[in-house]
């Protein structure tokens, strides 16, 4: 396999509102310390909580790294588990960002589909990670990433990658997990995602040989 096929980009968000330390970026940095194994070229980026920055940064990450997968991580004040988001939504962006801006169109991509699903089966990832002994972190699946910068980033990435993106919400630090525990959970989750992508591609290759 050429190296670009093993490149993974993981993003977390910068501070906003009461989240003066954003648990998502802390978790991503902890996960980077652990790594994803020698055969994965891992890049991490902090994303500012601004719609216009997301609109320029997400395409540039895809263009620069041509990653196998981009995983975006965000914090949710309502989450008590690590939550795998199945899809991103295009419309309903009314919340103002850190620079008091929101898109006039209130959508991510004018004319894009209402909802885009990830190619990764989040239910499978959830089951497999939950079966991991000793992880000590609860993982769940959600269909609604909340129509703020998290959802906006996810939809933009899904649109650009034809679904080869994932989004993970983490709870705020200490509610109940530490940054280290969240980092370990991200490592386990992203490894499962890569494993599932490998399996899906093997199946496609087998089908091409049959025909």
TrEMBL record:
Belongs to the peptidase C15 family. It is an enzyme of class 3 (hydrolase). Keywords: Coiled coil, Cytoplasm, Hydrolase, Protease, Thiol protease. Monomer. InterPro entries: Peptidase_C15 (IPR000816), Peptidase_C15-like (IPR016125), Peptidase_C15-like_sf (IPR036440), PGPEP1_Cys_AS (IPR033694), PGPEP1_Glu_AS (IPR033693). It comes from Poecilia formosa. It is found in: Cytoplasm. GO terms for cellular component: cytosol. This is Pyroglutamyl-peptidase I. Its EC number is 3.4.19.3. Transmembrane segments: none annotated. Residues 183-210 form a coiled coil. One of its GO terms (molecular function) is pyroglutamyl-peptidase activity. CDD domains: Peptidase_C15 (cd00501). The active site is at 85, 150. Removes 5-oxoproline from various penultimate amino acid residues except L-proline. It catalyses: Release of an N-terminal pyroglutamyl group from a polypeptide, the second amino acid generally not being Pro. One of its GO terms (biological process) is proteolysis.
